[in-house]
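Re: that chain you flagged

S.,

Sorry for the slow reply, it's been a week of failed gels. I finally had a moment to sit down with the sequence you sent. For the record, here it is as I used it:
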Amino acid sequence: MKYAFYFFPLLFLVACAQNTSGKQKVEDTSVTIDKVVIDVDPNLFLEPSLAEAVSTVACTLSDGTKTTCYKIVSSSSPSDHQMGPWCPTNISDGAEAGGVWVEGGEIYDVDGAFIENMAAFYDDDTWQMYDANGDIFRTKTKEDCANAANPNVGAEYKNFCVECLPSYLTDITQEYLIPVRPVRTGATLAFGGGGPGGKPDGPPKGRPDDGGPGNRPGGGPPAGGPGGRPGGGMMVRGVAFNGIRFDGPAPTHAILGAYTLAPFDDAGGHINLHAGYHYHAATGVSTKITQADGHAGMIGYAMDGHGIYERLDANGKEATDLDDCRGHYDEVRGYHYHVDKAGANNFINCLSGAYVE
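Prediction finished late last night. Pasting the structure tokens below so you have them in one place:
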């Protein structure tokens, strides 16, 4: 089966519990000191995916630490896999012609049959995304992409499959600063909003606040820039080795509420005209670093510099000691995170380390 995902981030700071197993506590504080701290390895990033070579810059982290960060400038074009497809063209098309969608914690192929059966799937006869010949209503131009992604999308795009193509992007780069050496803090940053997609009993009526046009495919620039939002909080969870960002949950309720569908491709990504190509789920397509001891493979770095790993290890098992952020510690990898399952429309739940605001 293939997979699909979206993005949505309303964010705020809250405290979140952390596992201190295998660590020492600094006396009279809640800050933990890891016995093993693994620096970010800039050589793991794929040069063909970057707009410029990884460099080091002075930076100040959210806890006030003055340190050095790696500057990652992404070209928004992964060199390790193709982008798309997203929308099939006819209800007779197979899974290879479309992307994926998430619903109720599960992932579904967006093939012709999925489009044909949306009325039954969502128990809502309003869904009719194809004509008498079985041809699927799709966005076909850059203007369509922008208009259909607008939070106030017009009725003319009702029952459209929304896809924004790589050819619509011109000279888009995204810059990320990640501390060379991760710094654990006593407080953690939890990501607010988002979560699993629309409910199985049908898309919500109306258009709940989805955080602005930057959170819909093709929409405007994300509030606060690529790394955050006004007033604090993080939108970007981390960066894959191909320079593509792990984004917050897609606003699936808002997308479905407009009677549109905006699939992810098989890599869990889609395109925003201002933010470029980005991921909403880890599906095992992008580059990973396998671990000699059978631990889950590494797929990138969180914005606090801690490694991000796949959910399951080589035996198909998930770690049982993850903290509230989906992180834990071992003496090979230090503190690190494991992503949520693809159908959860989520990567990690919070950051345990300081980050560049």
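What I noticed first: Confidence is low (pLDDT under 50) at residues 1-29, 193-215, 220-233.

Talk soon,
D.
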